[in-house]
Amino acid sequence: MKQYDLDSLDNRDPKAVERALRIAKPILQALFQPEVRGIENVPQGAALYVGNHNSGVVMPESYVLATAVHAAHGMDAVPYGLAHEIAIRVPIAHQMLVPLGAVRASHDNGRRLFERGKKVLVFPGSDIDTYRPYRDRHRVIFGKRRGYVRLALRSGVPIIPVVTAGAHETFYVIDDGRSIARALRLDKLLRVKVWPLILSVPYGLTLGPIPPHLPLPSPIRMQILPPIHFDRSGEEAVADSDYVEQCHERVLGEMQATLTSLGEEEGSWGGPRDRLERRLAGIRSLLGSISKLGD
Fold first, then answer.
1. How many domains does one find in the chain?
2. Tens of pLDDT, residue by residue, the chain (295 residues)
3. 140 and 229 belong to one structural domain
4. Residue 225 in contact with residue 258, Cβ under 8 Å?
5. Range list of H helices, 171-271
6. What is the value of pTM for the model shown?
7. Of 214, 247, 278, which one is at a domain's C-terminal end?
């Protein structure tokens, strides 16, 4: 299998991206019926998309975002992804994700991408957000991570908040297992702060992060907010911890308010029976799409 330099900015293959989005579009539509709002808020030039993270390594929000911005604004709007090194070193995932624009997460790689006028996607909450318990599905959980703010300030680029509701319902996180991760010192060994208890298809009940699961159909609503431009930038701003915190609170506050609003819309989607019927309809639609691919 081909091995890529994880710090190279030249691995992304536009043809591979377009092919992946073409394949993903009917699958996303069948499973999630995605609705993306605020597509007009995507600016030209370098910028940092900041999203809430969902559904483990499946992360359907990243594909919904890429599909929507590509259709509206072309390849320049499709972000490169700053990804955890372990996630993009795994065989198969490595060969699939790196040509789509995944690079090792670092401030230097982000800075170099911005210098080329590119857009970058980060999920500051990482494992604590994507494995948050089901009861917290309408919360944005970034913890103490402020690196994303420093990255934007250091390069003087705006932050584009991207808020997604529904994507965390493709499996069921019973508990994030933070106490287990601390007891096993996994933050030191694997750089993870959670060891979640998950109910998913096809794995059933499992303890710890899981490989890609079969996502349960769930309507996804995404809101792209207007870019946030900060008054200060550069190393002086980065070194001011109070200012960094103010910037973080602004971003987090806008994202949380939006996710709360999107979550409240779920009341119009009906009760458990309605959700089950929609999920079964989504599965039937997906199977129909797959059968058409074989014709």
1. 2
2. 889 999 999 999 999 999 999 999 999 999 999 999 999 999 999 999 999 999 999 999 999 999 999 999 999 999 999 998 888 998 888 999 999 999 999 999 999 999 999 999 999 999 999 999 999 999 999 999 999 999 999 999 999 999 999 999 999 999 999 999 999 999 888 888 999 999 999 999 999 999 999 999 999 999 999 999 999 999 999 999 999 999 999 999 999 999 999 999 876 555 555 655 665 665 566 556 555 655 5
3. yes
4. yes
5. 178-183, 186-189, 235-239, 241-264
6. 0.90
7. 214
